Amino acid sequence: MTIGLSHLRHIVVVMMENRSFDHMLGGLSLVLEGGKKKYPQINGLTGNESNPDTAGNMIKVQPNAKYQGQLDHDPDHHFPGVDLQIFGSLPAPGRVENMQGFIKSYATQGTSVAASRAIMSYFPPDKLPVLTRLATEYAVFNGWFSSIPGPTICNRAFAHYGTSFGNVDMNLFYIQDPIPSIYERMIQAGHTAKIYYYDQQSSTMEIVNLLKNQPQIFGSYKQFIADCDGNTLPQYCFIEPCYNDHPGPGGGQIIASDQHPDHDVREGEKFIANTYNAIRTNQALWETTALLVVYDEHGGIYDHVVPPKCESDDYSSPPEKTGTGEAFNFNRLGVRVPAILISPYIPRGTVVSGPEDPNGVIFEHASIPGTVTGFFLKNFDKRT
Predict the structure, then answer these.
(1) DSSP structure class, residue 116
(2) Range of the domain at 373
(3) Residue 108 lies in a domain
């Protein structure tokens, strides 16, 4: 990858919505070839993972995830719900993380006992041909976690700022602290950066602070395609899928491609493929670009890996904000999500080890602005 770094001119991030690693990629560890595991290094499922339902039955993971219709009750991914999923019980002295509360949590969303078990479903690899191909042809991360055990807006803030400024919920917030976004850092240093949202009807979900009279950092997905074709892609790009079904030009229908339950997962596969192909079919761009496909958080869907502890960013969310009766000090991560790094210089079948390996590396969404800063703005912290 050293050769690749010497050629690297563009970093592109596609952030999808609300799916866990085990749900989307966990089945890869069950693929056999010649009677042996084809992908033994991937920390996926064994097939024996289970959670108790509200009737006390232990329900194993099942390879029966559906593209749409199975999670029509949106799984809970707010802070209290994720807390229950990770610990399997409400806050109490001495409890430990066991990843045993996913079915219990989904049962609070209006599902029947039988329907609540769907949270343990996962996709066999052949049902997700695009994600599977990219994960096995390039680099897949065993240990990429959402930044906090909570929902979209605060997790996406970590991808833009490296922090959520103490927020753990879906409320829009205005930043008072003098911490610039990665886009501001890039532009102030004479570099180029842009967020590509899908279109006006599916406008950006990124927090209002990024607007700040900075229209130059925003563009549509159509412009992204044109920038790829015209060799005018910025050095750092963040790409958003379509978040809602809505009428398209000429009276057609545009379908949500973010993969947020209960949107059609196949549309997200198409979106990821289109983004990859926009880069891949321009040889000069392909040879100078690293593309990261990652998910903002797990969306309440089962994963077996206990989120690791982390160093606090010195913020704290009080009990009345977390909804659990306890403060959160940003000293542990959220649930694991799919993450794939794509580049022509990455050896086929690369697996980046995570917490299962004593020498593994833990990633979360602050790794994105950290990497962009480290690569393009090497002396950023030394500037006043």
Answers:
(1) H
(2) 2-46+124-382
(3) no
216: buried, middle or exposed (CB in 10 Å: 19+, 13-18, 0-12)? exposed
pLDDT for the residue 171: 79
CATH number of residue 274's parent domain: 3.40.720.10
Q: At 171, list the tokens.
A: 């409320």
Q: Angle, to 10 degrees, between the axis of helix 152-161 and the axis of helix 367-376?
A: 10
Count structural domains, the chain. 1
Computed over every residue of the chain, the mean pLDDT equals: 93
Q: Answer whether residue 157 is part of any domain.
A: yes
pLDDT band at 376 (very low <50, low <70, confident <90, very high): very high
* Inside any domain, residue 279: yes
- Quick check: is 358 in a domain? yes
Cα–Cα distance measured from residue 91 to residue 319, given in angstroms and rounded to the nearest whole number: 11
pLDDT in tens, 163-202: 999 999 887 766 777 888 999 899 999 999 999 998 877 7
DSSP alpha helix (H) spans, the chain: 2-7, 21-24, 79-87, 102-106, 113-116, 129-137, 152-161, 182-188, 221-229, 265-280, 283-286, 319-322, 367-376
pLDDT tens-digit map of 117-136:
999 999 999 999 999 999 99
